[in-house]
């Protein structure tokens, strides 16, 4: 029976063989890898990965799809975690000694940002992440200071990861086709992130970008004095989208030294 994509789960199933092959080549799965796929759906990518992997894990919320996966794959080939990836403990997946987890997935666009922040909690245990996301989201993730799309997502993820937009995927590669273009992003955790308290950095960045059109001095009014902003190496008259990650970290460390 054909599975009908469910809007509430943000389901768009990738079916283009050329795109699937390109993604698999980018991931470059090796036999000994500890791999987990988020949202395997109809298992198009799962099939590709299992050509190189003797076993892998998947996290799937849709119970109908879980049942399909259980019928299709033996347990020694696929370990299925039925549940919400936003709540899943990725640290619970067993990883061979000396290795780290590899994470892949066609992430539901409606939960992509909170899921990326959830995964950041496990960054020290992760080797790399390859995700399909809405192109606009990936552009925000990799944006540099001065870009119109540089913002909270850019700063917070670049603090934890080195990221690259690998290639764009057209809507017709999916069933049903989404209304937007997609893109593949590679995320490699930074071995030694700039020292600062994450919650403090998050608070600073969120306040800074809450009023993008104002200068940074006005955006951070009540949190920092103009002299403190200068102390962090920032011109108080610039806008928040021109301030580099290192400068936001410097601000966070003024509030709560690392």
Automatic annotation (TrEMBL):
SUPFAM superfamilies: S-adenosyl-L-methionine-dependent methyltransferases. Its main location: cytoplasm. Its EC number is 2.1.1.182. S-adenosyl-L-methionine binds at residues 12, 14, 39, 60, 84, 106. It comes from the Bacteria. The keyword Amino-acid biosynthesis does not apply. Coiled coil: none annotated. GO terms for cellular component: cytosol. Residues 19-191 form the Ribosomal RNA adenine methylase transferase N-terminal domain. It is found in: Cytoplasm. Specifically dimethylates two adjacent adenosines (A1518 and A1519) in the loop of a conserved hairpin near the 3'-end of 16S rRNA in the 30S particle. May play a critical role in biogenesis of 30S subunits. PANTHER family: DIMETHYLADENOSINE TRANSFERASE, DIMETHYLADENOSINE TRANSFERASE-RELATED. This is Ribosomal RNA small subunit methyltransferase A.
